[in-house]
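User: Can you recover a sequence for this backbone? Please restate the input before giving your answer.

Assistant: Of course. Working from this structure:
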């Protein structure tokens, strides 16, 4: 059952959520891992895939000192980087369409609790196992980091956004 609480967001995040035409997607690798670990070409594949959904707003967590990521993201109208977001509030928001995560135990538990379709991109440790379970149980899609192409990301997003099972 989804969390039942009020949504309190910083003004900038709240405005993005309110103004989103067809919803939002959260992209976060949790509090311990930053998207800087993703090679530049794969980051571009991800961001280019996001741009194929112009009516959806993508909230991404990044560390402020990752200025190169911030500079790249500024080239995309529907991608919004933040160094901190209240993940549980966003996951339980009715406008959230999907969650892209590293597959950490806490993030996946929060996604399950909120009933959010998930795309998991495991990086290390238990994340591969957690992602495989999500894939097996059909409550998410697991993708390998090295195999992230723009087309595969678009296909995965379409699947989790449109599949109402």
């Amino acid at each position: 059952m989804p969390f039942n609480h009020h949504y309190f967001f910083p003004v900038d995040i709240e405005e993005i959520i309110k103004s989103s035409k067809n919803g939002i997607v959260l992209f976060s690798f949790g509090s311990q891992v930053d998207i800087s670990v993703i090679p530049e070409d794969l980051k571009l594949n991800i961001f280019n895939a996001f741009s194929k959904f112009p009516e959806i707003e993508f909230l991404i967590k990044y560390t402020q000192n990752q200025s190169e990521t911030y500079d790249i993201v500024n080239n995309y109208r529907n991608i919004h980087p933040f160094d901190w977001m209240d993940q549980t509030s966003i996951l339980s928001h009715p406008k959230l369409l999907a969650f892209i995560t590293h597959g950490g135990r806490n993030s996946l538990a929060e996604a399950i609790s909120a009933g959010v379709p998930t795309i998991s991109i495991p990086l290390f440790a238990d994340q591969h196992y957690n992602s495989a379970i999500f894939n097996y149980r059909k409550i998410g899609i697991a993708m390998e980091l090295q195999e992230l192409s723009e087309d595969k990301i678009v296909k995965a997003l379409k699947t989790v956004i449109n599949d109402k099972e």
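That completes the design. The CA atoms of residues 45 and 150 lie 5 Å apart.
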